[in-house]
Amino acid sequence: QVHLVESGGGLVQAGGSLRLSCAASGRTFSSYAMGWFRQAPGKEREFVAAINWSGGNTYYGDSVKGRFAISRDNAKNTVTLQMNSLKPEDTAVYYCAAKRSGGSYYSTTQYDYWGQGTQVTVSS
Q1: Cα separation of 63 and 122, whole Å?
Q2: pLDDT tens digits for 91-119?
């Protein structure tokens, strides 16, 4: 069982930056790949970024490549999403998720545990 709690969301102007954090409970955090997804009103949940168990491999959605960076600290049971050059279209609720090994990093159905989400609003 993994319990995930996101933090760091808020209101920012276009072009600004935010840093989201996800704190995980449990002693097996390092055995999970971690991902960030987002969901805007009226839209499906969208893949943003993912990182494998060791942090050696990262994956990004096309809309955030070059602007967002995912990282993890297994000693602190945390995963972070650094978001730069934010755009109004980045506005959404951002969710942290954990998955066991195997399967696609990009699909919501492959993740076993989810946080409650944190709101990010980018004003133009």
Answers
A1: 15
A2: 999 999 999 878 899 999 999 999 999 99
